């Protein structure tokens, strides 16, 4: 079974990629995370609205370089 090398999380007004598989539950609001674009951000509570935030372009590029990611 495919295990993703990263997952996405709304934070800092963008959807950022976070290394590793999604934890058992969502990230806690206010939790400090390090993104694939090497930023340190604070997790936002996932809502239908903030999943529409723009995707971080740097995370998107970095996610494409992760082993196992589709081209």
Oligomer: single chain
Structural class: alpha+beta
Q: Say how many strands there are.
A: 4
Write out the strand line-up for the largest beta sheet, numbering strands in chain order.
1-2
β-strand amount: 25-35%
Query: Per the principal axes of the C-alpha atoms, what is the gross shape?
Result: globular
Helix content: 10-25%
Q: Tell me, rounded to a whole number, the average pLDDT.
A: 86
The number of helical segments is: 1
Summarize the structure.
With 71 residues, this protein is an alpha+beta fold. Helices cover 11% and strands 25% of the residues.
Task: Write out key terms for the chains shown.
71 residues; 1 helix; 25% strand; two-stranded antiparallel ribbon; alpha+beta
Describe this structure in words.
The protein has 71 residues and is of the alpha+beta class. The chain is 11% helix and 25% strand. It has one helix and four strands, in the order ββββα. It has a two-stranded antiparallel sheet.
Topology (elements, then pairings):
Elements: E1 6-11, E2 14-19, E3 32-34, E4 40-42, H1 57-64
Antiparallel strand pairs: 1-2, 3-4
